[in-house]
Structure formats: structure tokens, C-alpha cells
Amino acid sequence: MKSMELGSQGLTVSALGFGCMGMSTTYGPSNDQASRATLARAVDLGVTLFDTAETYGPFHNERLVGSALATVRDRVRIATKVGFIFDDDGKMVMHDGGRPAVDCSPEHLRTAVNGSLRRLGVEQIDLLYLHRIDQKVPIEESVGAMADLVGAGKVGHIGLSEASTATIRRAHATFPLTAVQSEYSLFERGVERNGVLDAVQQLGIGFVPYSPLGRGMLTGALTNLDALDDSDFRRHDPRFQGENLDANLRLVAAISQVAAAKKVLPSQLALAWLLDQGHVPIPGTRRIQCLEDNLASADIALTDADRAALEDAAPIGKAAGDRYSAGMLATLDADSDSAPQQH
User: Fold this and answer.
1) Percent of the chain having pLDDT more than 90?
2) Predicted confidence band of residue 338 (pLDDT cuts 50, 70, 90)
3) 171-175, 231-235, 249-253, 291-295: which has the minimum mean pLDDT?
4) Residues designated as active site
5) What is the rounded distance in angstroms from the CA atom of residue 206 to the CA atom of residue 278?
6) How far, in Å, CA of 327 to CA of 125, rounded?
7) Where do the domains of the chain lie, and which CATH numbers do they carry?
8) CA–CA dist 203, 197 (Å, integer)
9) Buried b / exposed e across 309-329, counting CB within 10 Å, b at 16+?
């Protein structure tokens, strides 16, 4: 696995990272032993960037990732995200309408980072993101607190998740951002039209697409919800419901045709499309075989004909339905492209 510099602040990572969320939450029950084996295999294959967050579990994922990577700490870079509020029982605090509560005040961030350091079992977080932007706190105050944590040696680099162009520019002017993380894939291309991709490229900030396989849709393996566990959040995800699902499966079928012509998996082609743009996607999986398939995408070179075929198969705005529930959409930065996709 080749390495590359993420952004322009000196953080070197593998071209493909690993999103660890699904090992603790969101996609139904998981198995820690299998997760540890998959993480170990990822390290063996050269993955160095592992992405977690305090809210994955909550808290379980940071403990899992920290303990699984403890013996190879000098070979990996751990990214985590903070900013949500939890009650005394460790559950996320929710507002009416299912909107998670966010607190990016300096005091809360300092407390949250200390908790993440403890759970991860590390002295420094390599890359710290604000998980969501707190509209009640000026971004300059939040980033100023993150800069102080860098100065104290508790954090190596900082970034934002799901931030608008205006927020990114204000934050970067306060302290240099290493990375911005947003959902981006052939399935979700909002950052192309809301200015985020242009902004990070202009400012020398690395871009980390999460859900690069459309929450599993772009694997081509998911054709209905029957096989999903009752606790799998996709049973309630707008893009997996009714007519939206039918429309999105047609989109995946078009991508799969392009992949078949190139003799690769649709998931591999979707990741190669992101790598071709110089981004660092963080696909997640619990299975070693899927991990190996994903990493093979780093060896796929796209031609102009491939790019044109994918643009025809999955143009901007083709996916049907909102990418989050109404409550989660409400947590996105006010200027982010959170409007429903049209088809």
C-alpha cells in the first residue's frame, strides 16, 4: 500500500484508510474477535490510517481500536472525532426530533479529548476532528481549543467533519487544518457542488471521504433489506426505502456494468474513482475478504473512458433520497449541502 501526505501539514498516511465505525455500531451486531483479526490484517497489508470516534458505541470503538493497535502504535495513525454530548449513562443526548446534541466549547473539547486519549490508550491523537460543527460556538473558539491541544502534545493534527466552505475557511485561518472529512462517493457527490472540494484543494487541506461505498450500496451485494439485522440503521435510512431504493439500485446497476467491463468489482471501481482524485477514502468492513478486495482498488488505474462512463452512470444528483434522517440532517453545518438528492 503506497503512502501519501494527507493535506500539507506533514501527516503521512496510507492511500486507503480504514473506517472503524461498523465494528461497534450502525450495521447490526459485531464480533470483537473478528474485528481484531480484520484490523490486524489491515495493518499487515499496509493500512496506516484508522478512523474512529467517541460516539461509535458510544465509546466501545475507541477502546477496541486502541487495544487492537496497541502493539503496532508506531506504525499507525489514529484519527478520532469529538463534539457530541453524552449523559451519565454514556448515551448520546438527543433533542426533540432525534437530533443529537453538540457541544464544541473549549471546555467540552478538552474533557472529550482526555476521554478519547484514555480509551485509546495513547499519549497523542494523531488526527482530531470536530465530529459536527456547533452553531452556538464560533468556530474560531473551537479550533483555538484544538490548537491548544496540539500545543500541549495531546493532538498531532486537526480537522473538521461535515463542515461548510465558510466554516472551513474560518477554521483554517485560525489554525491550519490537516483534513476535512465528509460523505463522498459515486452515490453522494454533494461536496462537488457546495464548494467544499474546491475549498480544501485551494487551501492545501486533505480530503477524507467517509461512506465511500454508499453505506454498502456500491458493493452491488445489497438488493433489499431482508438480509439486514433489525438493528441495522439502513432499515430506516431514506435512501434504502421504497422507490428511493429502487432508483438507487438502478444507479448501482449502471456502475456495475462499467466495473464488469473493466473486470473489477463495483466497490473497487468506486474506491478507485476516489483515489484517482487524490483523496484518502476510509471504507470500513468487518470481513478480511472485503478488506482485501477494497485494498486492491489502489492498483486500479482509470482511463478517460472509465471516468466518462462513471460520470454517465452516476452523475451529480442521481442518488434518490436524503442521505440522513431529518434529525441527523439537522446536525450538518448550516451551509453544507444537506438538501435531498433528486433523480
Assistant:
1) 91
2) very low
3) 231-235
4) 56
5) 9
6) 29
7) 3-329 (3.20.20.100)
8) 10
9) bbeebbeeebbbbbbbeeebb
What the block records as the C-alpha cell of 298 is 489502489
Q: What is the pLDDT of residues 172-209, one digit of tens each?
A: 999 999 999 999 999 999 999 999 999 999 999 999 99
Which amino acid, residue 317?
G
- Residues 111 and 85: their CA atoms lie apart, in Å, by 11
List the grid coordinates of 6. Answer: 494527507
Burial (CB < 10 A; 0-12, 13-18, 19+), residue 67, is middle
List of residues 6+ apart from 308 with CB closer than 8 A: none
Predicted TM-score of the model (pTM): 0.95
Cell 506533514 belongs to residue: 10
